[in-house]
Amino acid sequence: MEPLRPRFKIQKHRISGPENEKESVDFSPEKVIYVEIDDEITHVFDRLKRLRVKRVALVIPRRAIILQSIVNLKILKKKIDELEKEVVIVTTDLNGMQLALKAGIPAIEKLFEKEPIDAPPPTAALHRGERPLRMSREKVSLSQIIRQEKPTIFSSLINRIKERWKKKKTASQETRLVFIAPNKQALFTLILVSVLLLLAIAYIALPGATIYITPKSTILDPSFNITFLDFDKNRDLIENNSSNNIIVATYLVEPPPFTKKFTHFATGKIFKGENSRGVITVTNLSGNPWDLAARTRFQTQNGLVFRISQPVRVPPARGNIPGTLDVNVTADEFDANGQTIGERGNIPPIKFFLPGLKNPENQKKLYGENKNPMAGGVTRTVKIASQEDITAAKELAKREIAKSATADLQQFLEQQNLVKKTNFSLLLDRHAIKIGEPRIDIPTNLAGKEVDQFEVTASYELRGAAFDRQILIEELKKRLLARSDPDKKIMKIADDDITYKFLDEDTAAGKIRLTATLRAIQAYELDPEKENGHRFIKKITDHILGARVKDAMEYLQQQTDEIARVEITTWPIWAPTIPNIADNVKFVIRDEENGLQ
């Protein structure tokens, strides 16, 4: 039968909504853990891991470190799920509660005992008023009161008999043994002295200390040379390999030709609008006439270009009077930035400079200005496929084929694994993946056609090499274990993250040589049951026995080659020193969870 446990009611606090809402659901924690304000997530997780119960309530104070980061709470949620426990956080920290709910951990404000379900309902009498009480004295009637006020001879006789009986009873009691109740103050003093004496004996005879050590870990990432051989071309060498080299058989992956279509947008333009026209007054500040050739450009500061159609001569300045000449101009189809001018050329009076005059001083001496607005410009352009677009489309197809080649081969290999019930992996080195020259088809006579976009069809062939990844991993693991430090143990091997580096290739012989790197985490072996751990534990035990807790902590923290973190707890908790007896010192080795990045 399951032992009885107190039932609790969880009062949830919802942050969302116009105002806070509360709802109550039943929850029966088998254990309540009180978290300190500076407890780290690893410490909380260790406490949860040591519990053998499933439902746990974590009581966390406001501004606790564990509630300051949603990353910490998400890690805690992941570890709780791995332990298959039901955990609820009890806190009054609204910000921390909100982060906990985002991380997926139930969070509440209060945890209190639920009233028994089978409690009897209050009686109707209690609702009407107080419950009537039974009097300890005998009831006295009105007639008795009257008779007491008027004593008779018979009542006097009875009273005298009662007094004599009481005197006899008192005399008989005086002859009995009398037991005096003990003094409460003396009894309390005796109990207090006994407790203090017991604590003193425990402090002297039964002290203890527990030392929690997290071994220091390092990354081990050796590299190994691997020879990949085509099985069909090197079958004898693969099956009769007597060398210590790592040789892995590969199998040809050659799917049918792939065909893909790519869309390319046309960037060519044909102007079919109207060009703006007008008159520009050309001003010459120099003392010499200025000849301008046909189609000389006059340009605004924002890049609009107008041209003259005939050659002209601008007269020179006469004294302080500049020479001027009115010329007819027409806007270009596109401005200096390649944008359509059209109706943008319908501009008000503005100053023009001549971009053909490279000398800035000459541009100051000769310039133009329209006294009346330009007019007649209409914008209308049509997109066409230019020769540059066709060339760019071919290059795009080649780039996309090279980018998707690996994914195409992997998808084909996965389909083959399902059909043939194999478990091969693709050799991902780019030298092992061969891409045939693609055949690109483009519509004929496309250049110059009025189109917004056009399609390009590309056909290409792929080849690759597949191998049994599990065989390679086993070979790498054996060699990695041989290279590990004898004083350390392997904590984790990242067999899902192997990196390769190309060495050389012999295509005719079906041979590729690569260097593979396999990474692992190794930590010092501090288990007292093992030889290295026993030797290290004995060394530090001999040094810290009888030492102050502070000095012992400093000594352990100096062992940076072997120890990453250390924590010491003592019994009694106020004990200032480590026990002098080695058997009273307990070591707990914590495996730090490491990630390979």
What does this structure look like?
This protein is an alpha+beta fold and 597 residues long. The chain is 29% helix and 29% strand. The strands form eight sheets. Strands 9, 10, 22, 23, 26, 28 and 29 form a seven-stranded mixed β-sheet that branches. A six-stranded mixed β-sheet has the order 2-1-6-5-4-3. The protein has a six-stranded antiparallel β-sheet with strand order 15-16-18-13-20-19. Helix 1 runs parallel beside helix 2 (70-83). The longest helix has 34 residues, at 387-420. The chain is elongated, with a radius of gyration of 49 Å. Mean pLDDT is 82; it is low at 1-25, 114-137 and 140-150.
For this entry, give a set of tags.
597 residues; alpha+beta; Rossmann fold; seven-stranded mixed β-sheet; 13 helices; 32 strands
How is the secondary structure organized here?
Elements: E1 8-14, E2 21-27, E3 31-34, H1 41-50, E4 55-59, H2 70-83, E5 86-90, H3 94-102, E6 107-113, H4 124-128, H5 142-149, H6 153-174, H7 184-205, E7 208-215, E8 217-220, E9 223-230, H8 235-239, E10 246-253, E11 258-265, E12 268-271, E13 277-284, E14 290-292, E15 297-299, E16 305-308, E17 312-314, E18 323-331, E19 351-352, H9 360-365, E20 366-369, E21 381-384, H10 387-420, E22 425-426, E23 434-435, E24 439-441, E25 453-460, E26 462-467, H11 469-483, E27 488-493, E28 499-506, E29 511-517, E30 520-524, H12 531-544, H13 549-557, E31 563-571, E32 585-589
Parallel strand pairs: 3-4, 4-5, 5-6, 7-32, 9-10
Antiparallel strand pairs: 1-2, 1-6, 7-31, 8-30, 9-29, 10-26, 11-25, 12-21, 13-18, 13-20, 14-17, 15-16, 16-18, 19-20, 22-26, 23-26, 24-25, 27-30, 28-29
